[in-house]
Specification:
By secondary structure, the protein is an alpha/beta fold. It has 8 helices and 6 strands, in the order βαααβαβαβαβαβα. α4 links the parallel β2 and β3.
């Protein structure tokens, strides 16, 4: 594939205060992996250089009303945890995109994310296709949840998918490492943010992991 800047979108999933910042509802849960990967400093550097290279920045935050009426009345699993903790409420500091990655006027901010996959309840696919993007580089939270869900969907929709291994974090190092080693290579080309930036404008081979 030709990793040309004009055909590539950098998709940032849930870089919001409830994850990224001290005092955020889930920050304590993800802080250890954030620190181990240096995901926030890496992503800040990545976004700066990606903008300079002409890559489109796409933000995909999640947000809910105060009573979470967008969800089933009896959510379970991770979305129950979000509701019970009172996270990502519209109009609150916790739902805001972290200030270091505040969207620029030329960025695209996707609205309507209410679940795990960045495509499921949004117009992300429509916008990417209408703008002619063929390549997607993914970063964000959680490594083994929303990033992985979005990665799988992007793969099945025919995009060339890159996952940025040092720009993701989740609730434990074990979960993070397992996703990178076992799942990411099946549906994407995992690479560091520096490897990605160095590859822009070149031909790269999407190898991934063969089914065994």
């Amino acid at each position: 594939m030709q990793l040309s800047a004009e055909r590539t979108a950098l998709v940032l999933i849930e870089f919001q205060n409830d994850f990224t910042t001290e005092g955020g509802v889930f920050h304590g849960g993800v802080k250890a992996v954030m620190d181990s990967t240096q995901m926030l400093p890496n992503t800040i550097e990545l976004v700066k250089q990606a903008r300079e290279a002409g890559i489109q920045i796409v933000h995909v935050p999640i947000a809910f009303t105060d009573d979470y009426h967008e969800l089933t009345p009896n959510p379970y699993g991770i979305l129950k945890g979000v509701k019970d903790a009172g996270a990502f409420k519209k109009g609150t500091w916790g739902a805001e995109i972290v200030s270091d990655l505040h969207p620029h006027p030329e960025d695209i901010v996707i609205e309507g994310k209410r679940g795990l996959c960045g495509f499921a309840s949004t117009n992300l696919d429509f916008i990417l296709r209408s703008r002619g993007f063929q390549n997607i580089a993914l970063a964000g939270f959680l490594t083994n949840c929303c990033v992985e869900s979005s990665m799988r969907t992007a793969y099945e929709k025919g995009y060339n998918v890159i996952t940025l291994t040092d720009c993701c974090a989740t609730l434990s190092q074990e979960e993070h490492d397992n996703a990178l080693a076992k799942d990411f290579p099946m549906f994407s080309q995992p690479m560091t943010h520096q490897a990605f930036l160095s590859s822009v404008g070149t031909e790269i081979e999407l190898a991934g992991k063969a089914y065994e």
